[in-house]
Design brief:
Blueprint: E1 18-22, E2 28-32, E3 38-41, H1 44-54, E4 62-64, H2 74-92
Parallel strand pairs: 1-4
Antiparallel strand pairs: 1-2, 2-3
């Protein structure tokens, strides 16, 4: 069975590092350091599996953090919002 493609769909995400840890509620979090890709996971193994797939199987790009880490996807929403606005401006011109 072939390995699934990275969920981010962006080859540039493979150059990013992923942080893995638990949030304040005890859930496992994996998130790239730029805040563009990540998620909540049922256990540590699933979080690591996701991060390894997203980084192109580079263990040196996956970092386990001892502190609390909260999933923050607000950066991604802002990036998408700006791209949408630029596309709308181009169509209006």
């Amino acid at each position: 069975m072939p390995e699934p493609e990275p969920l981010s769909g962006d080859p540039a995400s493979r150059s990013s590092r992923f942080l893995i840890g638990k949030d304040s509620r005890g859930r496992w979090v994996a998130q790239d350091e730029r805040g563009l890709c990540g998620g909540l996971f049922v256990n540590r193994a699933e979080a690591i599996r996701f991060a390894m797939r997203e980084t192109g199987r580079r263990p040196q790009a996956v970092i386990l953090v001892p502190d609390v880490i909260e999933l923050d996807m607000t950066r991604s929403a802002k990036v998408e919002f700006h791209q949408t606005n630029r596309s709308a401006q181009r169509r209006a011109a």
